[in-house]
Amino acid sequence: MHPFRHLATVCRHRRAVRRIARRVGIPWRGLTHDLSKFSPTEFWAGARYWQGTRSPNEEEREELGYSLAWMHHKGRNRHHYEYWVDIDPVTRLYAPVEMPVADTAEMFCDRVAASRVYRGAAYSDRDPLDYFLRGHAKDIMHPATAARLSLWLTTLAEEGETKAFALVRAAVREDKRRRREQKRARRKARRTTSQ
């Protein structure tokens, strides 16, 4: 059991996410990021399987064949693409749903921060993209979400964080503007139909 080392890793990760989230225009998401990691289900599994170089969930999965901590975590945190799976009304099968821009932005922050924490001094801006390309996430998540995240991670790898963070920030701003306009249009339509 390594409760203090696990706590230090979680806090280091959350601090890194906060810094990046502030720079991409989602500061509240940075403050509230991964709070479920302090729940007993996630915390004690993290302490038990902590190694410091990768997620404790991977070690738990290797030992048990599944990770209760991960199942708990993905069901409570909208920045994980696994949260965004629902029953398709046409096929009646589980299928990925496109993630909102702000949730995708938080996922970007999470991946960059995790790479920084686990890679330490060996970190490069290419690490989050390499991790994304090595895994199967791009094949499982909604194609629009995968394309957006891939663009941001590729920009980070090829043009650096200043350019990538600006790209994410612009997408977040544009999405907020679009949602405000949609809300105004709905209000206007309700007023028109009630008259």
Helix/strand order, N-terminal first:
HHHHHEEHHHHH
Walk across the major sheet and give the strand order.
1-2
Major sheet? 2 strands, antiparallel
Structural class: mainly alpha
Distance between the termini: 66 Å
Number of helices: 10
Helix content: 55-70%
Annotation, overall tally of beta strands: 2
- The Rg value, from CA coordinates, equals 18 Å
What's the pLDDT, averaged over the residues? 92
Uncertain segments: none
Oligomer: single chain
- Molecular shape: globular
Q: Please indicate the percent range of residues in DSSP E strands (runs of 2 or more).
A: under 5%
What this model shows, in words?
By secondary structure, the protein is mostly helical. The protein has a two-stranded antiparallel ribbon with strand order 1-2. Helix 9 packs antiparallel against helix 10. The longest helix has 34 residues. It is globular and about 65 Å long. The termini are far apart. The model has no long low-confidence stretch (mean pLDDT 92).
Task: Outline the secondary-structure elements.
Layout: H1 3-23, H2 27-32, H3 40-49, H4 56-64, H5 68-74, E1 85-87, E2 94-96, H6 101-119, H7 127-134, H8 137-140, H9 143-159, H10 161-194
Antiparallel strand pairs: 1-2
Helix pairs in contact: 1-3, 1-6, 3-4, 3-5, 6-9, 7-9, 9-10
Brief rundown of the structure:
The protein is mainly α.
Notable traits:
195 residues; mainly alpha; two-stranded antiparallel sheet; 10 helices; 69% helix; 3% strand
